[in-house]
Write a structure and sequence with these properties.
By secondary structure, the chain is of the alpha/beta class. It has three domains: 5-180, Gcn5-related N-acetyltransferase (GNAT) (Aminopeptidase, 3-Layer(aba) Sandwich); 186-236 and 289-357 and 376-417, Rossmann fold (3-Layer(aba) Sandwich), CATH 3.40.50.300; 238-288, no CATH class. It has helices spanning 12-22, 25-28, 47-50, 55-62, 109-124, 139-147, 176-180, 185-188, 206-217, 224-234, 238-246, 251-260, 278-285, 291-308, 318-321, 337-348, 352-374, 395-426, and strands at 5-8, 67-74, 79-87, 92-99, 129-135, 151-160, 166-175, 195-200, 220-222, 311-314, 329-334, 386-389. The strands form two sheets. The protein has a seven-stranded mixed beta sheet, with helices on both faces. A five-stranded parallel beta sheet has the order 9-10-8-11-12, sandwiched between helices. Strand 2 and strand 3 form a beta hairpin. Mean pLDDT is 79; it is low at 184-190 and 251-286.
Length: 427
């Protein structure tokens, strides 16, 4: 369990202690505000100078609305550190932190403080983004923020040491949506973990949007794993699944299936002549991969993943089988043929004409598989809750739109539960 901390207004005694802490080189190296090489640099104010400052100067430093400075106290009312929130004027806030009590290092005080600061940044201050600038040699701090969901964005040079080596810092950030969905497990118990399905034609970039949604929600993205789970469930190899799907991509493939396999075992019921008698060959064909077994197997895999929750399912017709009781949101990614052709040409190293032909064939095959194996028209937008046009937005913007819908749905469910509770109480 994390220790309890309180953020208080800075007192003169607090400033005096901060000054003494920074005299210790090991402590000053842990202060994110130490952006120089050599003497410790305290961001925002000079502790020694502030001890002799006027009331006006004190107020100008500790009353600055763009730089919020707090003293960190533990549950025994002991001063253990200092933290700051610097607003960048663009909807973001930079965090800096120092736990000055070395005897309390690695006891969770840094984590507790950062969580309080993030609640204030995203709750009270309504900021869109929080970020930190951590020296590369401060491994504990880097580990702390990565554990809390911060993602590395860039690196910058801080200074050059006397020996000529360069001290660099990593810039890590987290946005408001990502932080909201990184709640402790006890807070998630009453709210089903979100389940998102993302579907798109080849070259649409749907896989990138699915990955970004998963990142924002701190969810697991599942793509090829669906095929692996389907193979285990049906006791087939990936090659057998691929061959089976290929046989349902054209009229002639389906006719061949009907000729070789009895109609009631085949995916085709209306064409062809069959060679076997079902009553004689039941044992031979009981493990035959059929349309029914394929659909049931895929449904079972998707249901299992939905039951686990907190997952983004990409492709494989997952939107047709996702469980509605999990509050599933089905997303279709749309984009123009020209954009898809350009993307495909780059990704597969094709000429524009080759990409055009490849996509035409891939679209035809995908529609056939969906129609003949899953019984769905991939072009039926009525199967989806959200349709995104990536010609008009980036993958990140599209992902934020989806996460916003998830957030709004969660708010509505909570409001509905509150109304129900009020009604029961009134009775």
């Amino acid at each position: 369990m994390l220790p309890e901390v309180t953020l208080k207004a800075v007192s003169m005694d607090d400033v005096d202690r901060v000054g003494w802490w920074l005299e210790d080189e090991e402590v000053s190296a842990r202060w994110f505000g130490h952006y120089g090489c050599g003497d410790p640099v305290h961001r925002g104010y000079d502790p020694i100078h502030m001890l002799e400052s006027t009331d006006w100067e004190w107020q100008s430093v500790f009353g600055d609305s763009s730089r919020l400075i707090f003293s960190i106290y533990n549950d025994q009312d002991e001063h253990v550190g200092e933290c700051q929130v610097l607003l960048d004027g663009e909807g973001g806030a930079e965090l800096s932190l120092l736990i000055g009590r070395k005897d309390l290092w690695h006891h969770g005080y840094g984590t507790s403080t950062v969580l309080l600061m993030l609640d204030r940044i995203f709750g009270t201050l309504r900021m869109d983004r929080a970020w930190v600038n951590v020296p590369e040699d401060n491994a504990p701090a880097l580990g702390l923020f990565e554990k809390l969901g911060f993602v590395g964005e860039a690196a910058r040079e801080l200074c050059r040491r006397p020996d000529g080596t360069v001290l660099t810092a990593s810039i890590l950030a987290i946005d408001a949506i990502s932080y909201q969905f990184r709640r402790p497990a006890d807070e998630q118990a009453t709210e089903p973990a979100p389940v998102i399905t993302v579907t798109g034609l080849p070259g649409s970039g749907s896989e990138d949007i699915g990955a970004e949604i998963a990142r924002l929600l701190n969810s697991r993205q599942v793509d090829e794993e669906i095929l692996d789970l389907l193979c285990r469930r049906l006791r087939c190899s990936p090659g057998e699944i691929e061959g089976f799907e290929a046989g349902h991509r054209s009229f002639w493939g389906r006719m061949l299936d009907a000729i070789v396999v009895p109609m009631e075992w085949s995916a085709t019921y209306d064409v062809g002549y069959h060679m076997f008698k079902p009553e004689q060959d039941h044992e031979i064909l009981q493990d035959q991969l059929t349309k029914e077994r394929y659909a049931e197997g895929l449904k079972g895999v998707v249901w299992k993943l939905c039951a686990e929750g907190n997952v983004v399912l990409h492709g494989h017709g997952a939107h047709m089988f996702a469980r509605s009781d999990r509050g599933t949101l089905n997303v279709f990614v749309s984009t123009s043929k020209q954009s898809r052709e350009q993307r495909t040409a780059v990704e597969l190293g094709m000429t524009p004409e080759e990409a055009k032909k490849w996509l035409k064939r891939a679209d035809r095959e995908n529609r056939s598989v969906f129609k003949n194996l899953i019984g769905s028209d991939l072009r039926d937008m009525g199967e989806f809750d959200i349709v995104l046009n990536t010609d008009r937005m980036s993958a990140k913007a599209a992902a934020k739109m989806v996460v916003g819908a998830v957030q709004e749905a969660a708010v509505q469910r909570e409001a509905s539960r509150t109304r129900e509770l009020d009604e029961m109480t009134a009775r």
